[in-house]
Structure formats: C-alpha cells, structure tokens
Amino acid sequence: MPIDTRSSYGASPLAGLSSGGLAGAGASHPSMGLPGVLGESQGMREVFRTTRQVAPSRACVLIVGETGTGKELIARAIHDLSPRSTGPYIRVNCGALTESLLESELFGHVKGSFTGAVDNRTGRFEAAHTGSIFLDEINSTSPKLQVKLLRVLQEGEFERVGDNNTKKVDTRIVAATNRDLLDEIDSGRFREDLYYRLNVVPIYLPPLRERREDIEPLVLFFLKRYGEQNRREMRKVHPEAMRKLREHDWPGNVRELQNYVERSVILGTGPELLVEFLPPQLRGEAPPRPIRHRGGGADFPSLTVELVRQGIRAAGANANDLHDRIVGQVERELIQQVLQACDRVQIKAAARLGINRNTLHKKLSEYRIDENAPGGPARNGDGGEAGDAPSNPRADDPISDDE
Ligand SMILES: Nc1ncnc2c1ncn2[C@@H]1O[C@H](COP(=O)(O)OP(=O)(O)OP(=O)(O)O)[C@@H](O)[C@H]1O
Ligand SMILES: [Mg+2]
C-alpha cells in the first residue's frame, strides 16, 4: 500500500508557529527552492514552503516519504535554515542498531553499565546540544526507547544508560520515516502519544512518479554534476532517452534516477545521453521491477539498506551475531549464485569472485555449500562438462591466501 499520511496531518499544521526571520535565508519567498534540492512540481514547492516556514521555529518536524525521495536533504535544510545552524547537526539512523546499542548511542552510558561499557560515553542527544538531531527511520525504535524519546521530546530530559542523574538538553528534533506511522500504531509497533508529539509539523515528500515534471530538471542537474566529476562532456539527453526517463515509475525515487544518470555518464560516450546507456528496465528490454512502497527501492543501494534492515529486525533485539548472520548470509548467497553461473567449477568461480581458490574452498566448507547444492557438489578444477575431462589437478594447490 502506498505511503500516504497526508490524510492524518490535519489542517494547517503550521498554524501558530512563529514565522520569524529565516537564518541564512534572507527575505526569500517561502516556496523558493532549497540549496541542492531540486523540484518545480506543486508537491515539491509545498515541501520548500513548509521547510522554510518551520525552520526558524523549534517545532519538531516529521518527514515522511518513500526511500530516495530526499528526506535527509530536507532534514539538513531545516537545520541549515534555522538559528541553530551554527550548532551541531547530528544524524542517527535508528534502523541500523539493536535496541540496547541505539539506547546507548542516543543517550550515552556510564562505565560498567553493561558488558563492554568500559568508559563513560556521551550520547548523540548531548552531542546535539544547541543544534539539531535527525532521527532517521524513527519507525524502527523499540517500545522502551519510544518511552524515553517521548520524555526528551516533552521535557528535554533523559538519563544516560546506567545513570541516575538526569541530563537536560536543548536540541531540535527532526525525525523521518518511510513507513506510515498510523499503520505502525494500528499494529501496535508505534506509540500513539509519541506520534502526535513528533508530528507537530509533517512534511510529506511525494514519490517521483507523482511529480514527473521534476524528472527532466533532475536528470539535467545530475548530468551536469557527474559530467563535471568525471570530466565528460555529456550535456544533452536524446529525446527518446528523456521520454523513457519520464515514463519510468522510479521505485527508488531520486536516488535511483541519480544512479542511472551517473551510470550513463560513466558508461556512455559522446556528448549525448542515449537510450542505449540506460539500464534494460528503462529501455523496455526487461520487465520493470515492482514498485516497493515500503522502504525497499529497486536499485542496489536501496535493496541493501532494506536487506540489512530486515536482517536486523529478524535477528531480534538480543542478537549478538549480526555480522555473521547478515554478511554471512549475503556471502553464502553470492558464492552459490556465482558457482551456479560457473557450472560449479571452483577455479572459474574464484576468478569471477576475485578471491583466492583456497579462500573459496574454505568458504565452501564453512557454508557447507557442497552438501546442499542443487546442481551437485562444486568441482575443483576447470574440467569442462561434468565427467568429460579430468579436473585440473593444480586447482587445489595451495597458493598464497588473500585474506
Ligand atoms: N529533490 C532533490 N534534489 C536533488 N537531489 C535529491 C533530491 N531528492 C533526493 N536527492 C538525492 O537523492 C539521494 C537520496 O536522497 P535522501 O538520502 O535524502 O533520501 P531518503 O528519503 O532519506 O531515502 P531513504 O529513506 O532511503 O533513507 C541523495 O543522493 C540526494 O542527494
Ligand atoms: Mg535517508
């Protein structure tokens, strides 16, 4: 289901907010763009207007939007346009840490409060004193942390983990979510009181497919950026390529568009971005990926973000083997797929993977890939078709390890 929390925003969330001078923004028009944030559509103009209006206040802002729509850019702009811009801007990705690590990251801890707490540590809230703190993926926080966050929001107070002393902090809170928090409330994963406290001023970033007029300016903007970075003279976009770009549904939103333009600049030749430089799904040669509304874009970085997020969530709050669990699983899958593609010939697979044959051999037994392989056990050498030729006798020779 698409994210759309607009209906839950209520009328005029800015009513009653101070509209004092904009730090660093001069007397600019409220709907004027923000530095480095492009958008000419009605939806983006609304975003610019709300951002500029809310920035000078202390109000908490909740930024909502699918992956890659620019939530982080807006959070940063709010800080930069605020009177706090000379103070620190601290970003915490709440989805990247387990409950206890996140608690200590946010609030700090005192020496000895848990195994591994060898020193007193200042948390990110204290680090954000006089500035702003951006709580990204706020939807990933546990109920216990939500209680603690509510208190900071209401009273500006908290305790470090393992400490009885109450700390006070003066920071402006900006939060982001790529899930509809009302759905999260319904399913019991998010506290309603925290939602209303966070949602003082909501900013909704529309997905790119709902503001197609922004596509062309974004393409030209990134073409210039990556052209300069890579010293390429690609300045124009062929009309047919632009048509394909305009028609794509952009499940990964601006991040996906940015990646495709960068890729075209790097892989393409000549002064013009041609259809052939675009990835197959845009050229109509492969079925487009389904649109993922909930956090997972179809581009590789977004998929990685979502994969890791799901791995952390599935492991549970008490897991202490996240590295092995998540990285191990990805590595195992990579080796299996490459082995399959190399007809299960280890020497070929090792070359494709760019790792030493002995390393691959060790990993095969570590992950017990032979035993479970659908295509039979992996073969050591480059022996052609199974049974046709003897395996390369040198394939298993010890060679220098690359680890
Ligand atoms: N309107 C825009 N103008 C220019 N660049 C943009 C715009 N929106 C997004 N981008 C670029 O797209 C990329 C993704 O943006 P950002 O990280 O802010 O997305 P996000 O909404 O935080 O995504 P996620 O939910 O995956 O964290 C960044 O490189 C950002 O600079
Ligand atoms: Mg983000």
Explain how this protein is built.
There is one protein chain. α5 (143-155) crosses α7 (192-198) and α13 packs across α14. The radius of gyration is 25 Å and the shape is flat. A hairpin with a 6-residue loop joins β6 and β7 (166-168). It is built from 16 helices and 11 strands. The strands form 4 sheets. It has a 5-stranded parallel beta sheet. The chain has a two-stranded antiparallel sheet with strand order 3-4. The chain is of the alpha/beta class and 403 residues long. Residues 1-27 and 382-403 have low confidence and may be disordered. It has helices at residues 42-54, 71-80, 99-107, 124-127, 143-155, 181-186, 192-198, 215-229, 239-247, 253-267, 280-283, 300-315, 322-341, 346-353, 357-366, 369-372; strands at 61-65, 89-93, 108-109, 121-122, 132-136, 157-159, 166-168, 172-177, 201-205, 236-237, 272-273. It has 3 domains: 6-206, 3-Layer(aba) Sandwich (Rossmann fold), CATH 3.40.50.300; 209-283, Helicase, Ruva Protein, domain 3 (Orthogonal Bundle); 321-403, Arc Repressor Mutant, subunit A (Orthogonal Bundle). Bound molecules: adenosine-5'-triphosphate and magnesium ion. Magnesium ion (MG) is lined by residues 71-72, 136. One of its GO terms (molecular function) is ATP binding. Residues 37-266 form the Sigma-54 factor interaction domain. One of its GO terms (biological process) is regulation of DNA-templated transcription. Residues 366-403 are annotated as: Disordered. Keywords: Activator, ATP-binding, DNA-binding, Nucleotide-binding, Transcription, Transcription regulation.
